[in-house]
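Q: A reviewer asked whether we had any structural model of the full assembly, not just the individual parts. We don't, so I'm hoping you can provide one. Inputs are below.
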Amino acid sequence: MEVKLPELRLKMGEGGSVADLPSAFGGDFKEFWLEIGFGAGEQIAHLAADNPSVGLLGCEPFVNGVASLLDRMVRDNIENIRIFDDDARLLLPQIPEKSFSRIFLLFPDPWPKKRHRKRRFVSPEALDQMARLLADGGEFRFASDIADYVRWTLEMVTRHPAFEWPAGSPRDWRERPAEFVETRYETKALTAGRRCSYLSFRRKSR
Ligand SMILES: C[S@@+](CC[C@H](N)C(=O)[O-])C[C@H]1O[C@@H](n2cnc3c(N)ncnc32)[C@H](O)[C@@H]1O
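A: Here is a predicted structure for the entire assembly that you could use as a starting point for your response.
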């Protein structure tokens, strides 16, 4: 980890600024995707291996998660991921607008108690940042096994003027999208009998 992390950390300028993603990644990628809170890195590693022309940026402050993703990257020879090993809320304002074509927030910490809901990642401020960072037509992908968090997100995102929810039928949110793998977190939720929902929102044209 001591060797690999400095090499794979997103390259940032003075005060943590990011002038543009191609130079911060140090590679030639056709588009960029972001995963917020990658946990053990199963999903981002899977997406990166399946999409070698895409540069994926993963944010995760939990050191064991970062170590686990680095192990996977070495084991599977994955070269198109860069890491921000801290709170995503510090990074998002530093990145130029329209940088990403997809943003993933999968099984975020649920904060199920009413008095803790304001700690949830999905908030009007976070949605404003995601709306700024997504290119026109870009996607915000969300998943959760906590019904109240799914309702909360649906309500907040559909109220936001920059997003639309193009779902047509229950299959669109009940079935795991074909490009995802089942993560350990998701397996635990399913084993405990909790239903998972997968929401895909589209960034409207500016
Ligand atoms: C419940 S886990 C889910 C992990 C993974 N997405 C999955 O589906 O297996 C939520 C993760 O989000 C991370 N997280 C929480 N708040 C975060 C933040 N502000 N910025 C980046 N990551 C965050 C946590 O450290 C944790 O690893």
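A: Points you may want to mention in the reply: Residues 36-39, 43, 59-62, 65, 87-89, 106-109, 121, 183, 185 surround S-adenosylmethionine (CB under 6 Å). Residues 122 and 153 are 7 Å apart (CA to CA).
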